[in-house]
Batch of 3 targets.
Target 1
Amino acid sequence: MPANENFAERPGLSGPREPTFRLAPHNIEAEQALLGAILVNNDAFDRVSDFLRPEHFSEDVHRRIFDVAGQLIRAGKLASPITLKTFLGDHDLGGLTVPQYLARLAAEATTVINAENYGRTIHDLAVRRDLILIGEDIVNAAYDSPVDATPRGQIEEAERKLYAVAETGRYEGGFQRFSDALTIAVDMAAKAFQRDGQLSGIATGLTDLDRYMGGLQASDLIIVAGRPGMGKTALATNIAFNIAKAYEFSVRPDGTHETTNGGIVGFFSLEMSSEQLATRVIAEQSGVASYKIRRGDISEGEFHRIADAARLMQSIPFYIDQTGGLSIAQLTARARRLKRQRGLDVLVIDYLQLLGGSKSSKSDGRVQEVTEITTGLKALAKEMNVPVIALSQLSRQVESRDDKRPQLSDLRESGSIEQDADVVMFVFREEYYLNNKQPREGTEEFVAWQAAQERAHGRAEVIIGKQRHGPTGTVELAFEAEMTRFSNLAREDALPDHM
């Protein structure tokens, strides 16, 4: 290489020339300095190996050097200019042989201390190049789209690619001191002490359920499952409204809000319209039956109660998205947008089976698609550090059993629902099944049925079939069908003494 030629010029180019187009972001000097540091001191590799990959380098020869050096170091061998040269073959390096180029890298190396900073620079530039490629793909697909392709499909594909870049574009993490984890745990306990019900998570407003779960925990995926008619949506809307109604915040020094009680709720209503959902919540809050609200069959007093409930609902942080047929990529993008613009403490999806996956998962079958959806929801809960409540249908095999209480094996379509969920809750109302099998009056069966009906009337069971950080078991709640309202069940030990 001539003395006046810069060592940092792109290997493989015979000399400098005026570019006729914009070059993708890259930093040859950073790549050379980092590779030199690794060849001089293999400890430098350990500082970048958890986030840096060969494909993050802009030059092919640099990818090859990093890959071979990594293989040698992981095998417990020394990676140096001498040990590497036999694995690299011949390359056109602007007049330098491979051994000469490796020796020059080692001579121009940065210190081990700076290795991680150089590695992050290389990684960030690689992410920028990925974004440029995605942008080019979007433009080309829009110009040359097939007749049967829809803009919505292209948007979904672009969102999926961007989400993939966002997921792989992280180099946070790694080990932390246990004392740091202890500080976070103590801080969480202090906040729980200040919060309503003294819970570590967000209170649902249903005391017995909160006692079992400690509230809704951040980053948990909570599945609420049941057969049609059991009240899954009613339970989810009750919990969501209770949380939004209890919302309180404090102002941080930078002017942003920090939730101190309750929370901001996002509700994806994939099945019902926002008006139907609002009618349910109004019925629950006003105590006026939802069918009377729909028919307009209400008295003046009931109308005032409805108006009061509506005024309360207007002031709470409860946001509804009623778009049907969303994909997991679209839902993720909208949830991120809500978190950025309004804040978000709890996310509810009604219901999981109405979500779609990407094109590739659809072509692999419904089981693969549901697996992608549940994995995406769990990743979303962790990313945004909020509890995600997803409703799920159960298979019909429940109906064929004498005891119709659901179990984990009844979850439809994929074992991934049970696997990815932190909590699985089943909603069960025996009253629903008893109503459908009334025997003929005057028989012994009718007397037994009537007794069972009295015991089951107005009661619901929430069966906690799985909980990563707590016990499993059954919580009994009161259920008022006309108002679609779940509430705490009055227990005899909590009732006042009779005079």
Target 2
Amino acid sequence: MNGSWTRIATRVLLGVILAFAAPTAWAAPPVDRETHFRCYIVSQQTPQAATTVTLSDQFLSKVALTVDEPLQFCAPVSKNGEPILEPEEHLTMYAAAAPLVNHLSIATEDQFGPRILEAVGARVLLVPTQKLEVEGVPTDLDFPTKLNHSWCYEVNGAPVDLEVTLRDQFRTDTVGVGQPTLFCNPVEKVVGGVTTRIEERDVHLTCYDIKGPQRTRATHVLIENQFEQDTFTITSFELLCVPSEKKSFSPI
């Protein structure tokens, strides 16, 4: 009996050792069901007066700057057949530059795997946006109340060098995913004494350059957000923004 129990205990111990020794596949972070975005260049819009905002995130605090014309409009996108769970979630990108005292090394994970990014300075603000109409046709989409405002930093890092299939409301195609260009923190925004707080503190975005067949037909989209109601003319796409986790960061 003692010999039998000894053999059983040995097998269990060996199984535990092998389980820890065996290589494991990289596991997707908990943000894997958050919205992905494909960002389209805004080629025409109605000029707006600049708005002064104060931004605070995990890297910079209480930075006052002005926001004026939109740069890109970001639509929810399906990547490789994944469902779009929150079709109302759109973002508008505005210039919002601010320097960092030191460059930062950021350890991140997203659906493309773990990555080390070097952040060199804040560049743009992503603002939750309601899409009201496309080419004059109402969309019946609500305002995205669960979506973060995000402050995005210019970054350098290893390219993905993979092809993915993207499907959004404007087109479906296969694109090459290249260099990371932006890393986006959830941000608290103050405008005119009104504070917009962070909705999901652990949800970040990493935006990658994407290359593929470009759109040649312009589309007119009526939008509304905390800065403006306007009709954007959008044409070519530029970025894929992927939900990410920030594991750590430190000055370089």
Target 3
Amino acid sequence: MSERSSRVAAGTIPLLLPDAASTAAVVISEAMEYCARKMKLGNAQAAIDSLKQGNRSACGYCHYSLAQQVAASLGTLDDGVKSVYLFEYDEDLQQEEACDRGAPMAPLHLIAHVQAKTGGLDSIAAGLDRALVAAFADLIGMNVAASVLDVHFVDDRDVERRLGYGALLSALYNRPIRLWER
């Protein structure tokens, strides 16, 4: 090895991939900033205080921004993710119940259109879910829920044949909202 190449190798900084905990921290931080901006509050802490008080507007803004942030994170963490959608069964009812319980949000129901369904994608979603639950518990000082993230992966076959959650992407009524796309 030449002297020049050893200096380059010794000075190389290792590339660190984001872990679930740091991703969850960024996602929640961005959601609080978004909530504060939308509600015209002074800062993210004011948004957090509004969540703790069960303010339904704060819960709604937080829910939407978290969905956007998680969708972008899934796309960033796996190149096989084509697009991510938000869907709700009974959005208003779920959100009201969550706020009434003092939880910052109802579960995020997402559909991720992927090139291929893999165990790795399931692991990414499960790890991110655990990290979000822990981060929210730390942020608002209470137990949030056992799970805040509900991700369903669909591939081209599911979408083309309208199988399972793939059928929702072309539904006539209550079509999911596209949050992120490659």
